[in-house]
Amino acid sequence: MKLGLRYMKILYTHPKQILPILVLISEDRATGKTTFLDWLGMIFGDNMSVISPNDLGNAHNGSYAFKNIVGIEESKFDSKSLLDKLKALSTQKDLTVNPKNIQQYQVPFYGKLIITSNDENKFSIVDRKEIRYWVRKVPKLKDSNHNILDDLKSEIPYFLDFLYNEISDVDFSKSRQVFTPDEINTKELTHVKEESKSALLKELEYNFDEWGLKNQSKESFEFTLGDIKTLWYSKDNNMKIGYIRSVLTEEFMVEEATLGQYHNFSDVNYPQSRTRGRFYTVKNEHFVPSTNGEATQTELKELKIDEDDYEGHFLGLD
């Protein structure tokens, strides 16, 4: 409730302030998502526009270029170009207006985006580091009020007075979009992020997790793209090395590969055997530090013992 009132106060008193993309989701009907947009239209009048995803993808953007609030109804963003445009609109300061039969020109853009969707799982592809969405599930009303818009309209003067005088001043120092990532990190957002993962990413996470559980003494996994292909996808001719790379770097967010000697975690002789290649490193989330005198990788670095001398110093490792 407090976050919602703060959001409404900023809309009313700080129209130039950047805000997160507010997403109202519910697979149920008659929850009030559209009514909320209609109510905002009553409050803000010509400063608000309600469009469709098709309008957003249209080259002619005059329907929303000058609006302070842009509602997008019944939305699902499954096109990368449309999704990129949506995310860009949420933070950009200027917009190139492209009206029909008139030369393009630029204007300041202060539009706040509000999305409503019946798709609770995949209204959009949202990567795990995305912080621009504030996703809220709208509960179904127990009692229907068919005159709710009229009631809301009559309360608008009192509500605006309440926002202006009773809601405390907003702290703009914590985030450029006012709300911190922790404040808008809802369980609904987490669910959408999970559903947005590619099938390959989910498989890799599962496989790494299984290996980590069985090898809790190992701090990390080291592997090349070829190792992954050979270990888990050798019989899948459609699984290309390039796709594995893109999922690892763009979705799994691993650091760029390092060229050098590494311990292939899938090798039956791990960790004694080493080979050379362009390898990646992934942290083992189930790592348990040694308590029986064995040295971990971190301890080796702290002791500044060269990796080549490792086996000579610690013969007891399996």
Using DSSP, what is the number of strands? 10
CA distance, first residue to last residue: 56 Å
Which percent bin holds the helix content? 25-40%
- Beta content comes to 15-25%
| Overall geometry | elongated
- Secondary-structure-derived class: alpha/beta
Please state the CA-atom Rg, rounded to the nearest Å: 26 Å
Low-confidence stretches: 300-318
The largest pleated sheet is described as: 5 strands, parallel
Spatial order of strands in the largest sheet? 2-3-6-1-7
CATH topology of the largest domain: Rossmann fold
Order of helices and strands: HEHEHEHEEEEHHHEHHEEHH
> Structurally, how many domains make up the residues?
2
State the CATH class of the largest domain: Alpha Beta
Core attributes:
three-stranded antiparallel sheet; five-stranded parallel sheet; 318 residues; disordered C terminus; Rossmann fold; alpha/beta; 2 domains
Task: Give the topology.
Elements lengths: L1 H12 L7 E5 L7 H12 L3 E4 L1 H5 L11 E4 L7 H10 L4 E4 L7 E4 L3 E6 L15 E5 L10 H19 L20 H10 L2 H16 L5 E4 L1 H8 L8 H11 L6 E5 L12 E9 L13 H7 L6 H4 L5
Parallel strand pairs: 1-6, 1-7, 2-3, 3-6
Antiparallel strand pairs: 4-5, 8-10, 9-10
Helix pairs in contact: 2-5
